[in-house]
């Protein structure tokens, strides 16, 4: 289970972020403003704050996913014949979400172009690829139930 590791990472990053923030203030208070020392400590402080928030977001997502998934992944996926009404429902659902996925692809692409921090840029680029995969899967679902 990954959750204990994420909790540990979050707690460690939280302590580190506080320490780096305090250290940055100390560095500046010692007359080292606008120096290489401030730049290095500041850069690590920024990254650590980002890490802390990413770990918190992962923890929050895991809690929400536990409610959605319940006991875990589906052990057996059954292929069944759908009624015309079920086929229409699945197709409408997929088409509606295909538009949402298209919008998210465009949004994350724009974010990736505008992001300057490498962590944010990389995350936005990874989200673009994830949304493209969603788009592909939904398009396959629509093609399967287009009749």
Features:
147 residues, mainly alpha, 4 helices, 81% helix, 0% strand, Rr_diiron-bd_dom, oxidoreductase activity, metal ion binding, Rubrerythrin family protein
Low confidence ranges: none
Order of helices and strands: HHHH
Instruction: Indicate the proportion of strand residues.
Output: under 5%
Total number of helices: 4
Task: Categorize the overall geometry.
Answer: elongated
User: What summary fits the major beta sheet?
Assistant: none
> What number of structural domains do the residues give?
2
The level of helicity is over 70%
Q: Output the structural class.
A: mainly alpha
Output the radius of gyration. 22 Å
Pfam family, one: Rubrerythrin
InterPro entries: Ferritin-like (IPR012347), Ferritin-like_SF (IPR009078), Rr_diiron-bd_dom (IPR003251)
Protein name: Rubrerythrin family protein
Organism: Thermococcus barossii
Topology:
Elements: H1 3-29, H2 36-69, H3 84-114, H4 118-144
Helix pairs in contact: 1-2, 3-4
InterPro entries: Ferritin-like (IPR012347), Ferritin-like_SF (IPR009078), Rr_diiron-bd_dom (IPR003251)
GO molecular function: metal ion binding; oxidoreductase activity
Domain Rubrerythrin diiron-binding: 7-141
Task: Characterize the structure shown.
81% of the residues lie in helices and 0% in strands. Helix 1 (3-29) packs antiparallel against helix 2 and helix 3 (84-114) runs antiparallel to helix 4 (118-144). The longest helix has 34 residues, at 36-69. The protein is built from four helices and no strands. It has two domains: 1-69; 82-146. With 147 residues, it is an all-alpha fold.
């Amino acid at each position: 289970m990954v959750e204990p590791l994420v909790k540990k990472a979050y707690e460690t990053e939280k302590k580190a972020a506080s320490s780096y923030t305090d250290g940055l203030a100390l560095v500046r208070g010692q007359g080292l403003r606008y120096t290489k020392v401030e730049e290095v400590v500041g850069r690590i402080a920024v990254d650590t704050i980002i890490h802390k928030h990413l770990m918190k977001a992962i923890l929050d997502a895991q809690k929400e996913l536990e409610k959605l998934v319940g006991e875990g992944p589906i052990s057996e996926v059954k292929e069944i014949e759908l009624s015309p009404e079920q086929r229409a429902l699945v197709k409408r659902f997929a088409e509606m979400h295909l538009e949402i996925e298209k919008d998210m692809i465009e949004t994350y692409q724009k974010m990736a172009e505008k992001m300057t921090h490498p962590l944010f840029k990389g995350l936005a680029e990874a989200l673009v690829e994830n949304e493209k995969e969603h788009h592909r899967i939904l398009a396959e679902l629509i093609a399967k139930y287009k009749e």
